[in-house]
Amino acid sequence: MANLKRTQYTMILIILVLFIASIIITIIAGVSPSVSVVDAALDALEVNYNLIQLSIASNPLILAAKILDAMVFPVLTVLLAAWFFDFINHVNIKEKIEISRIQKLEGHVILVPYNNFCKAILKELKNSGIKTVTIVENKKELMQLYRNGELAIHGDVRSIETFEIARISKARAIIACSKDDVQNALIAITAKTANPHIKIISRANEEENVKGLMSAGAYKTFIPEDSAGEEIGKEISRRVLTKRTMKT
User: Fold this and answer.
1) Angstrom distance (rounded) from CA 214 to CA 175
2) How far apart are CA 7 and CA 11, in angstroms?
């Protein structure tokens, strides 16, 4: 990305140097500054408009200026193309659409991060008719969830803004799915900061870390075996979330 920006700045510098040099040469040839500027701009854009009355034959400087103007156009074209593709890279229309859908949700469950354990729970919640938003850590996972028809966002789990985009203010619960208990604790702390009333269900990978996760904000923890993701998903959807739904 840094190299791309550097290349773009270099092209801008080349355009400015060529443009200014053309104007200076045209002025030296005896053309007024205002006409020189307009003529150089029109030539650079390949607009045929004969403002300068001096012929190339009578004044070779005009030829030099025209050559410089002609060199501006291809560099400008490449620069505009680079800006366009850079813009497309940064503005993902699909992400914008998904985020707009997420902003309409209420009573959904936020899962973070995306992994096999999360996938098993996500499947069970979907089967139970519970709406979900998954926070992923890379674009590949994001595209995979999009293909599966799931709502998801790409973001930093340490950022309150990420949880706000996932509409934590209207969410039913957060499920922390990481294999790392420290990350699960961080998710709980960040989520509680974004919404102090949110219910946090956390995976605990070590028994000794359960108290720490509870202190971080989790109100329920699970210690799964490698194949227990689906069973825990059922437990969460049928007992934890359904129970809370009935109360509310």
Assistant:
1) 13
2) 6
Paired sense of beta strands 199-203 and 109-112, if any: unpaired
One domain for residues 39 and 102: no
Domain that holds residue 236: 93-247
Q: Can you give the CATH number for the domain in which 202 is found?
A: 3.40.50.720
Element (H, E) at 72: helix 60-90
Asked if 200 and 173 touch (Cβ cutoff 8 Å), the reply is yes
Quick one: 74 and 85 in the same domain? yes
How far is residue 96's CA from residue 115's CA, in Å, rounded to a whole number?
23
What is the per-residue pLDDT across 118-161, written as a single tens digit (0 to 9) for each? 998 898 888 888 999 999 988 889 989 998 999 999 999 889 99
Strand partners, 203: 222
Environment class of 63 (CB within 10 Å of its CB; exposed 0-12, middle 13-18, buried 19+): middle
Exposure class string for 84-121: b at 16+ Cβ within 10 A, else e: eeeeeeeeeeeeeebbeebeebeebbbbbbbbebbbbb
User: How is residue 241 annotated by DSSP?
Assistant: I
Provide DSSP, 148-202: TT--EEE--TT-HHHHHHTTGGG-SEEEE--S-HHHHHHHHHHHHHH-TT-EEEE
165 and 196 in contact (C-beta within 8 Å)?
Answer: no
pLDDT tens digits, 199-208: 999 999 888 9
Report the chain's C-alpha Rg in angstroms. 30
